Automatic annotation (TrEMBL):
Keyword Iron: yes
Classification via PROSITE patterns: FE2OG_OXY
Record-linked PANTHER family: ALPHA-KETOGLUTARATE-DEPENDENT DIOXYGENASE ALKB HOMOLOG 3
Sample GO molecular function, one term: oxidoreductase activity, acting on paired donors, with incorporation or reduction of molecular oxygen
Domain Fe2OG dioxygenase residue range list: 108-209
Pfam families per record: 2OG-FeII_Oxy_2
Protein keywords: Dioxygenase, DNA damage, DNA repair, Iron, Magnesium, Metal-binding, Oxidoreductase
Name the record gives this protein: DNA-N1-methyladenine dioxygenase
GO biological process: one example: DNA alkylation repair
Cofactor(s) the record lists: Fe(2+)
Length: 215
């Protein structure tokens, strides 16, 4: 179970600031023991209502290469790649993690997207978290548990400005905060890594704007 002792943390932060984007990374936001307990809870049967979705591309049905779940305040629904997700009510573990993320970052979040990468064959393709309901400058706080995976960022205008690909290896118990302007100019992905056999769970905390929300 996730308890309030999660708050006793003095993690250090690494800042990256580049044209059109900035992110802060806390490699050891949670120590190994706390991170282990969070991962065990997230993978416990029934703790998270994982979904297996299918996207349709040119008439073909393709399984999403990971499991997902969407939790948030009532009515903060979300849609991406044609998949509509109704917000499930916050549970205690997610509420506690959100409070700690808010305390560290100074930002408020009202929803969280969870991704479960069963092994290195699961992935997320290049994208930006720029859906209209996230508002003009979405701040995204990303928590990682389990297998370390590479997280890549690329500038949309890299062919013009020559900015190189950026790589972070997101550690077990780490927090990554992508600042608001980043989603406009940068894309990110989590590529397949066939050598990775362990599972990974990622939580991206978001703020869904009621007025920009599309029904
Ligand atoms: O798993 C990750 O680290 C990234 C997930 C992500 O980019 C997303 O859910 O939008
Ligand atoms: Fe994303």
């Amino acid at each position: 179970m996730i308890t309030a002792d999660l708050f006793a943390s003095t993690a250090t932060c690494e800042r990256t600031a580049l044209p059109g984007g900035a992110w802060d990374y806390w490699p050891a936001w949670l120590d190994a023991g706390r991170a282990d307990r969070c991962l065990a809870w997230l993978l416990q049967p029934g703790a998270i209502a994982w979904r297996r979705d299918v996207i349709r591309i040119q008439g073909r049905e393709i399984p999403v290469p990971r499991l997902t779940a969407w939790y948030g305040d009532a009515g903060r629904d979300y849609a991406y790649s044609g998949i509509a997700m109704q917000a499930l009510p916050w549970n205690r573990g997610l509420t506690t993690l959100r409070a700690k993320v808010e305390a560290t970052t100074g930002h408020a979040f009202n929803a969280v997207l969870l991704n479960f990468y069963r092994d290195g064959r699961d992935s997320v393709a290049w994208h930006a978290d720029d859906e209209p309901e996230l508002g003009a400058e979405p701040v995204i706080a990303s928590l990682s548990f389990g297998a370390e995976r590479d997280f890549l960022l690329r500038h949309r205008a890299r062919r013009v400005n020559g900015l190189p690909l950026q790589r972070l290896t997101l550690a077990h118990g780490s927090l990554l905060l992508m600042h608001g302007v980043t989603q406009r100019h940068w894309e990110h992905c989590l590529p397949k890594r066939t050598g990775v056999v362990g599972p990974r769970v990622n939580l991206t905390f978001r703020f869904i704007h009621p007025d920009q929300h599309t029904e």
